[in-house]
Amino acid sequence: MGMPLALATWTTVVLAVAACALAAFVLFAGIRRLLNGRTSRIAESVIKDPEEHTVTDADGAVRSTQGADITMPVENLQEIWTPEYLERLARTYWRFLTRATLGLIRVAYTEQERFIVLLFRPFVLLSFQAPEYEMDADRGIVRWRIEKGVLVSRAGRGGNGYLEIDVRRIPGERAGRAGVHVEVEVANFYPAIASGIGRWAYANTQSRIHVIVTHAFLRSLARLDFAESKVGRWALNRDPDDLPSPTPARRTEG
């Protein structure tokens, strides 16, 4: 039993590495096209990751955080600091993922879930619970709790892990400019390939691809080109007080 199991593990790892190598090639082409587009940059985006931006716990849970400081004219920040634009920021993230992968990775919507699919369902890579929105005068958060999918192990299913975009206002460095610090965090994520030899494969393939894509997304925000929401839950809403106040995500016990 040991030999077939070991062979199956190695086969899974090799296939995962090959798939990630193909994905990296596609991403390079897609991201280069996006960042070299003709849309003008209204803001400035500077990558500022935490010192320990990717950490794996002893039990295999991964936390990965990428961040950027984005500065813009004061009037632009005032215009977009609303629940409507927080929801549009969330949609912009998914749009960027689809464009960066040249349409291979797409997002399917239902009222209660979001699905990251390879071209179309039923090839679901990850599924998320409906997004949670929180906002006040200084901070905005959108959070998707991870439900299931082929990229996540059993330990990470059912909402324990999450993907989150956290936006905090920061002082502008020049007169007439304002800033935000944007962080994209994946936490309590248990990768399906990150056990044993798969942990090395994950760190050098899926994890690195995630960092590359997230940095590119953060740089793209300098254009302030926000996609229209597919759902429009907060469309035309301009009062941050209509949303719950921001709180750190908590790991679900049980």
Q: Supply the number of helical segments.
A: 5
Structural class: alpha+beta
Helical content stands at 25-40%
Total beta-strand segments: 10
**Overall average pLDDT:** 81
**Rg of Cα set:** 19 Å
The fraction of residues assigned to DSSP E strands is 25-35%
The tally of domains stands at 1
Report the span from N to C terminus. 32 Å
Largest sheet: 10 strands, antiparallel
- The coarse overall form would be globular
Which stretches are low in confidence, meaning pLDDT under 50 for 5 or more residues running? 1-17
Q: What is the ordering of alpha helices and beta strands?
A: HEEEHHEEEEEEEHH
Structural commentary:
With 254 residues, this protein is α+β, with helices and mostly antiparallel strands. It has one domain (2-242). The protein is 32% helix and 28% strand. The protein is built from 5 helices and 10 strands; from the N terminus they run H-E-E-E-H-H-E-E-E-E-E-E-E-H-H. Strands 1, 2, 3, 4, 5, 6, 7, 8, 9 and 10 form a 10-stranded antiparallel sheet that branches. It is globular, with a radius of gyration of 19 Å.
